[in-house]
Fold each of these.
Amino acid sequence: MIRLSAGSAAALQLKTVQADILPTTVYLLQGTACRGACLFCPLGRHSASRSRIFLGRITWPVFAQAELEKPLSQAAQQGLQRICLQSVVEDTLEQSLLPTLRWIKHLSSLPCSVSVRIETLHQAEQLFQAGADRVNIALDTANPLLFARIKAKSFAETLALLFSCAERWPGKMSTHLICGLGETEEELLQAGASILGKNITLGLFAFTPLPGTPLAFQPPPNEIQYRRIQAGLHLLRREPALFSRFRFLEGRLTSYGLTSAQLKKRLSTGRAFQTSGCPGCNRPYYNERPGKTMYNYPRALAAGELARVLKILLESLAEGEMKGERKMAAPLGSTPGGRSKHE
């Protein structure tokens, strides 16, 4: 048995769902209850919702492998561009994921990304030999202390493995970061610059609080903050060294080191605000609800949508610069609020 995202099931004509846009990638999930300790995940061992069929805010109905053989073999003809195989932390790769990956590659010529927790170069090599064209090692948070608390793992060891894999398999490694776990914008963008500088594909998610998880009551990021991160990562994908021109005030981005005209030109396609990650991946409504804030647009933005996003982004940068100027102009010996300690 294997799980298929509801949107993928609709794209493969296995399920009828109401949706204004369908995924361009087939998302498969192997396993249910995970031995991992990620505090934001409903499948993790600390979650009270382990029996639910959610990952992100997406439902994952179960299918027998036999039910998927014909749809997967025809996925490319139906316009799908990629298969993404995700797995919970359960048995060894040899017992669980590798047989499934070989089965997928026997059925389909589509490129296949694999996202699973690995701990060695040898495990990555096993995945590539079995047919993966990309392997994802999730970082999730850019803050080492948060990483240890939220994922119960070592940030330094995980990053070192990701970078070693990127050196061994150039252009074939992926990772993602989640905005809203408690890191600063400076930490996220600095990590993004380092990751992109290693030719690692980087996807961005918005933190989604889910019932039953230890982080269920932590709020998601606000849209303005998310837009600043999206735009920053978009710029860094083209020029990682541009990070040296970014400016921050107490961890909050205030400038990309570009004029408003330069920034608008570089963001004029709207691609910065669409889903990022592996080629051919659009992840519709993975961290959004229909009619609510659209963090990652799964399609090209309409002219009015792009105009609105650019407006709030530029306004937030101007506000940040003004706060920075006021802070610099505060009298010597003043408190952070601008009042003298002697008043």
Amino acid sequence: MNPLLSRLQPYPFERLRQLHADITPNPAYSPISLGIGEPRHATPQLVKEALSASLAGLASYPGTLGTPLLRQTMSDWMARRYGGLKVDPATQILPVNGSREALFALTQTVIDASQPGATVICPNPFYQIYEGAALLAGAQTWFAPSVPARNFGIDWAAVPEAVWAKTQLVFVCSPGNPTGAVMSLAEWELLFKLSDQYGFVIASDECYSEIYFRDEAPLGGLQAAAQLGRMDFKNLISLTSLSKRSNVPGLRSGFVAGDAAIIKSFLLYRTYHGSAMSPVVQAASIAAWNDEQHVVDNRAMYREKFAQVTPLLAGVMDVALPDAGFYLWAAIPEIFKGSDTNFSRELLGFYNVVVLPGSYLARDGQGHNPGAGRIRMALVAETAECVEAAQRIVQFIQSKAH
């Protein structure tokens, strides 16, 4: 067996299952899970209709590059979304079967494990695929310091020169999972300068970009590059997905865009990897990327939900409306002595609500796990269920306080 498999850590949801294995939830309450970030709003009818209308595509092998129409549709969407951004559909875009698969495969394409100390920098807290992809590519991971006062944004200036010198790939997630933080243009400018100096690739995970709470949509990586005059998107790949935008996690559809030289190598890898998107999924994806009204409606539902839930929880714990995404990243009260795992266990036992311990989404870095003492709540269910969960959490905390 591949010896690198032994380097993988248990997935957060497996750890959560084990954490709750001996807990009997209070049967007086119906179960509510805020643990997994799986979109649960209705799938748009136009996507379903496009799927059913294109079943003839099942009779054909798909090409890894996708159809010209699909790539043009993705390019057109980027232009609309990012203020006229120009991305060449022939050389700078590649469809992928969801961003998770692409994050993993891109890492295998980029990393040269023959170089001593090949390093991948990850945010902390982070999405665990970043770590697994790096380890299975034969690289080592380095978790960048985060700044709680800046909504756990990465302190790029605190990364030692010796680490940068061995870095081949940097993962960023903007809007962030679990914090909802969005990178500013100044942060992008610093990261681009570091990339030019040390030669590493930037993988910008932007799967939460269409769920936001401010008037201005989150800045994208390619958009930031264009604003800074980097029209060739050197060493930059952005990854996006329909899963959250269009409530189709089961469709497994997204795309990567950016540096044409990296896209060319990534296409070669994927051709051998067998990662072509089904013609049926391509047709449904075209329908989804071409329609914006369902995205606006989806965003409105999240805004209403967060507007009701956040003030309830803010009365008993340190939590605030994020910039974007569908998570609340909350610090548990001092009475729990920083144990996010005990908080999760007791909340399930007494009130039948599942939340994810923040320490499961981070690693010890610089002697500290930045997720410790926090929980992540995925507000993906309908508004009434999320409000009910928030009310139970308030009751739980108040009962412990007295």
Amino acid sequence: MDLSVPAVTLAALLLGTARATGFVLLAPPFNSRTIPGPVKAALALALSVLLSTQIAPSLPEPTAGFLVVAAVTEVVIGAALGFVVQVLFTAVQMAGDLIDVTGGFSLQPAYDPLAMTQNSSVGRLHYLLASTLLFTSGGHLLMVKGFATSYQGMPVGGEVPTDQIAAVVAKAFSLMFLAALQIAGPMVAVLLLADVALALLSRAAPSLNIFAFGFPVKILLTLTMLGLTFPLLPPALDALLDHAARAMVSLRSG
């Protein structure tokens, strides 16, 4: 028995895979190096299979030129959606980086073999905690739902809304800095007050070597109060994921 598949269905699978690939490569938690490349490819293909029935009705008769241009456009759109999610998710790690700078941990950065970069210890800890919370709270399913809903505003074959993407990215960066300050603000304030107290102590007793015990005091204070920032992560992460889902849905083509 011969099995024939319509050309429109194959085109929908191809273009859906292109957008899903761009999204999976940049959007957390799918962009982690702990997820093998074949698994990412299988996830992108699975998303395109699930959404092919939604993509196929809006496609014209596929031609070679249309498929090439549309595939490139879909990769760009998927990468833009994933980048917006990544920017908002990075706010949690930035909060840890702020604590590292004020607490003195950034003087000796640690090499991260997963990201192939040097990151601060507390910042990486916050990022790993946020990734764990993302899976345990079902946030990854919210990201997939936002990606699937993006086809309503940006159907396959439409133009890339560059102006809207630029505005959404700019707003995402502003929310990233605001969320990082809200998470790390109490700790940063306490550590800055500790710096002021050490400065006043050095003025009151010039014979004391502040550098000899200043860093140990700040490190001990940072480790003691670090647990105060952990309860702020779940609500902050929920708000960031909600903003990311809304940003993906708000984009409209042409």
